[in-house]
Amino acid sequence: MPAPPAPAASATPPALPLDANAILALAARSMFHLFSSISQGMFLVDRSGRIVWVNEGYKRFLPALGFASVDQFLGQMVEDVIPNTQMRQVLETGQPILIDLLTNKAGTFVVSRIPLHEEREGDAGYVLGDVIGAIGIVLFDQPETTLQPLISKFALLQRDLDDARRELATQRNHPLWKQAGTDGQRRAKHTFASFIGSSPAAVDIKRHARRAAQSSSPVLLLGETGTGKELLAHAIHAASARAQGPFVSLNIAAVPDTLLEAEFFGFAPGAFTGADRKGREGKFKLADGGTLFLDEIGDMPLGLQAKLLRALQEGEIEPLGSNKLIAFDARVIAATSRDLAALVREGRFREDLYYRLNVLPLRVPPLRDRRGDIPALVEALGDDMAQRSGEAPPELLPDALALLAAQHWRGNIRELRNVLEQVAMRSDSTRIDAAEIKRVLAETGVEKIAAPEVPLQADDDVDGTRLLRPLSEQIAELEQRAIAAAMSSTGGNKLAASRLLGISRATLYDRMTGATEDR
After folding, report:
1. Were both Cys, which of 291, 294, 465, 490 would link to 372 (CB 3.0–4.6 Å)?
2. Per-residue confidence at 28, pLDDT binned at 50, 70, 90?
């Protein structure tokens, strides 16, 4: 009987090193090259904290850090050239910081810091020895865009926490508030995660606001009503070194002129008829150690502006009816929807006070300049409305979102919320279409309703002869026009465009890729 055939020879894989330590060394080199290639940037420091190497990706951050070449950057101590770095802590403790947010003049980044140890030979092979350096890795350089789903979820949790704090703050006799020694209304209620949006305008204002938070200089928030100036003031305080201090706000337009001085500086016992016999501290003193937010600063009476200027310059106030000067330490954030420069020219706002406040001006963009954020704002506002009412959030159909994105929004986000609340109250269904949105806009009557625009192509034939084509071809062309209009409306943001069209991002990619291949 013939012998069975021998099995076919199989391809032999390349041999790995048999030594376990050699395999570990190979893995370490592979991981190093992998991190260097997939990260946005990477650098090394020695055990003293001196920068000894940077990869190609990190070189693009050097101009923003003040260096014209790599040679100037190498050899510098890491804390001297990278503000807010925690690399020294990693070198001293030997413990990694795997995920962290780093904000400095180069921008805001998601970073990782990993210590490097020397190897020592022990009974069980090589073991980690002393720290000999550390690796700094920039994982993401635009966290607002890259991590938008995580940021949105965090914003929702933050709103839940804010609601719980407000509810607890109403319980004046709660033992937690007695322990804390506060009435619960002197803390920031929002963070930068609360400022919804990933459009270029939203990302830009948040980046500048984060930089302002690192300073102690006055901040002037400029912008139309309803754009989120007060929310940004809360966020700047929460991200500043004064975050543990009080956040005290005063809306100047809401207080009668005759009471403003007492609100600002407080008053001594019996300072005027009807005054509290115990006296009262003013907002400046209440904000000591924290932040004082002056909303609608452009409505301040001219006579009080000189006293405000003196308080800001001298760092001390004199309560009404008192001869005693009281020192305070509060960072001032002011906001207005008025044109302060024009008020200065008209003599209705002091020029010296304007320059004192206008140290770090931030112009908050109107909603019409960030239309790509409307789908995310609608979702966030709908969730907030649902939490307050206990009902399901409204679901806007694509045509309704397109109609909202086309409006001028004179009242900005405040007007958008008002429209959503009216629609939710009037509709019998949670699914909202364009007809219901248009009805509310028409009854509001503040401005003319703008229709969503789908631009005509150059080869469109208005006499209708081009319509004599297969229906599938016409539908495909109309679909591509809708995608182009959505991409234009959202500034190229594919996630926002997919939400505007009511399709998934994967479907949007398929349709866009298919159109490209057809060409």
Report:
1. 490
2. confident
